[in-house]
Design brief:
- The protein has five helices and six strands.
- The chain has about 200 residues and is α+β, with helices and mostly antiparallel strands.
- A three-stranded mixed sheet has the order 1-2-3, with no helix packed on it. It has a three-stranded antiparallel sheet with strand order 4-5-6.
- The radius of gyration is 19 Å and the shape is globular.
């Protein structure tokens, strides 16, 4: 069975065994052409293409959208170049930012993998609900692109929950939605004063 990798937030991350890469092309995504999505593969994907219908997250079975127009290719090529430049910049600058976050008393996620992350977000573990609330709803949070993980795992979506192909994996022992904060590294690098104010007076 081919492995489909959702790379909307993981552009340029290599994983062995992923024969197809599915990525969003919407505004604000690493590959941004203003909308749509794409499937990249070394093998044909025609059998997985389905006519679009509304309600992605409530439909009974998953399906890919129709193919992009050939006229989208120039914009896609520029988006790839932009994403690669962004990833290269972040891989150079984020290690120092992680040190700074730890100096602020935060607990950013650190990969043990040899493949460097693309750093669309920096996951930060929050030790309790008070820290989560402080960081998530700070007046500086919006400027720093702070958000929380989606409250529901993918396996609980109607289109995936009953499909045998979806790997279940171990059930989490923590409420991941309230134990992690996601920080936009570009915003943090561009606004160091707001970053310092964001972590000030942590409970």
């Amino acid at each position: 069975m081919p492995i489909i990798e959702d790379s909307a937030g993981a552009w340029d991350v290599n994983r062995p065994g992923a024969s197809r890469v599915v990525t969003s092309l919407g505004s604000g995504k690493p590959l941004d052409i203003g909308g749509g999505g794409a499937v990249f593969s070394d093998t044909p994907v025609d059998a997985d293409i389905d006519v679009w219908s509304p309600g992605q997250r409530s439909r009974p079975r998953p399906a890919s959208s129709p193919p992009l127009s050939v006229h989208a290719l120039p914009a896609l090529m520029q988006a790839v170049a932009t994403a690669q430049a962004r990833t290269q910049k972040l891989r150079l600058q984020v290690p120092a930012l992680l040190v700074q976050l730890r100096q602020y008393g935060l607990d950013p996620w650190i990969t043990q993998d040899s493949s460097a992350p693309s750093w669309q977000f920096i996951p930060i573990r929050t030790r309790d609900a008070r820290v989560f609330e402080h960081l998530r709803y700070s007046p500086h949070a919006d400027l720093l692109g702070v958000c929380a993980p989606a409250p529901r795992p993918l396996r609980e979506l109607p289109m995936l929950g009953t499909r045998a192909e979806v790997a279940q994996g171990p059930r989490p022992t923590l409420d991941l939605h309230r134990n992690w904060i996601l920080l936009d590294p570009l915003a943090a690098l561009d606004h160091p004063q707001h970053l310092a104010a964001w972590v000030a007076d942590l409970p």
